[in-house]
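Why does residue order matter? Because the sequence determines the fold. Keep that principle in mind as you read this record.
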Amino acid sequence: MSPELDERLLRLNLACADNAIDPQRVVWLACDLLIAGLDSPALSELAGESPTRLTQREADALVRQVLVELGCTLMTEDEADWFLGREAARKVIAGAPRTEWNGASWRITTKVNDDEDGVFWALARYDTDPEPFRGYVREYLRLAEEQLTRW
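Structure:
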């Protein structure tokens, strides 16, 4: 399987585990995956669904079935949380603009907060002094790597 297909399946797995499936988008993604050469009964069924009538519940069930039929190990909600948080943390460390990671910073702050809410103070001051928050982010990355040994 190509790296692009692997990435698309990973993103689908993450969305499924994070309860973030968009029924319209997964129907079109299923069509794209079929065109790219993947095939399974559930994938064909998903591609044949109406993007405007597929419910969230139906989409979730079909996506899980697609992933299983294609041999993917389903992520747990906790694994997806750590994985997505790790992606955000890597962006922080790389110096990406705050707009690229701010929406996911909660994944970091909830895991590394201390008794004095230091991570929240550090995040609030990030624009003028990023290093204290980056310290918390480095700790988060260490914890995430421990949690995500197979991903």
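The mean pLDDT is 95.
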